[in-house]
Design a protein that fits this description.
There is one protein chain. The protein is of the alpha/beta class and 239 residues long. The chain has helices at 32-42, 58-67, 83-97, 116-129, 171-183, 192-198, 218-237, and strands at residues 2-8, 26-27, 30-31, 48-53, 73-78, 103-108, 131-137, 142-145, 151-155, 161-170, 205-207. The chain has a seven-stranded mixed β-sheet with strand order 5-4-1-6-10-7-11, sandwiched between helices. A two-stranded antiparallel ribbon has the order 2-3. It has a two-stranded antiparallel ribbon with strand order 8-9. Helix 3 packs across helix 5 (171-183). It is globular, with a radius of gyration of 18 Å.
């Protein structure tokens, strides 16, 4: 089985939205989280979806899933104290209901500009190598600094990549890594790729496009709106 784990447990404080979390902000009458889920809903290789959601917004999520005809979301679970804990909550329900050799694609609920090709590439990469981390080229100079802000070296840009999502792993591997972190009382790993690397798993990359942004700040939302409008115009007018 291929299961998408959509993480939508954040409150979105950097978005400065006081009315609702960022994943539930609307654009053209549709919530960001729905734009994201639709990519997995429509993909023929995705068998099921689990969404990790802020607990008090679960009922609202159920309402908009029904409104938009989403049928592959089989489980909705509440988020945890940290992003790592929230992902574990999603993995727990997958582990209880799916074979251990299932492929899990972990994805941000506020990363709505992915493609079917990127999902397919992640699944294939896991089948071939056991892991898949979507990345994008670094387009600006990266410098390493000391605590006193002194720059002591720059990094070759061609060797750098920005880690994005989705990130894919076999269920048995990512679940085992989370259980190990819990046993060590570690709850603040930056992302799944960092955790897997720290616990000795090899990571393989899948190249994604620059449009695969994570909507975290108001400027990200405006970029999303511009990119989405451009995509819609190109379909309608052949631009």
């Amino acid at each position: 089985m291929n299961i998408a784990l959509i993480f939508a447990g954040g409150s979105g404080k950097r978005m400065n939205s006081k009315s609702r979390p960022k994943q539930f902000l609307e654009l053209h009458g549709k919530e960001i989280i729905i734009y994201t889920i639709e990519h997995f809903e429509r993909h023929p290789e995705i068998d099921a979806i689990v969404v990790v959601c802020i607990e008090e917004w679960i009922d609202y999520l159920k309402t908009i899933l029904k409104k938009n005809g989403i049928e592959k979301v089989k489980w909705i679970v509440p988020g945890g104290e940290t992003g790592q804990d929230s992902i574990y909550n999603g993995l727990q329900v997958i582990h209880e209901n799916c074979p251990e050799d299932s492929i899990v694609l972990i994805h941000d609920g506020v990363r709505p500009l992915i493609t079917a090709e990127l999902i397919s590439d992640n699944i294939q990469c896991v089948k071939e190598h056991g892991s898949a981390v979507t990345v994008a080229p670094v387009t600006e100079t990266v410098m390493l600094t000391a605590d006193d802000k002194l720059v002591y070296t720059s990094v070759e840009r061609d060797k750098c990549r920005m880690a994005k999502a989705p990130q894919g792993y076999y269920l048995k591997d990512i679940y085992a890594a989370h259980k190990k972190a819990i046993a060590e009382n570690v709850h603040n790993k930056i992302d799944s790729a960092t955790m897997m690397s720290d616990y000795g798993y090899s990571l393989y990359t899948v190249e994604g496009g620059p449009e695969n942004i994570k909507i975290t700040t108001p400027s990200d939302f405006y970029i999303f709106r511009a990119l989405l409008d451009e995509m819609e115009n190109s379909q309608i007018f052949g631009i």
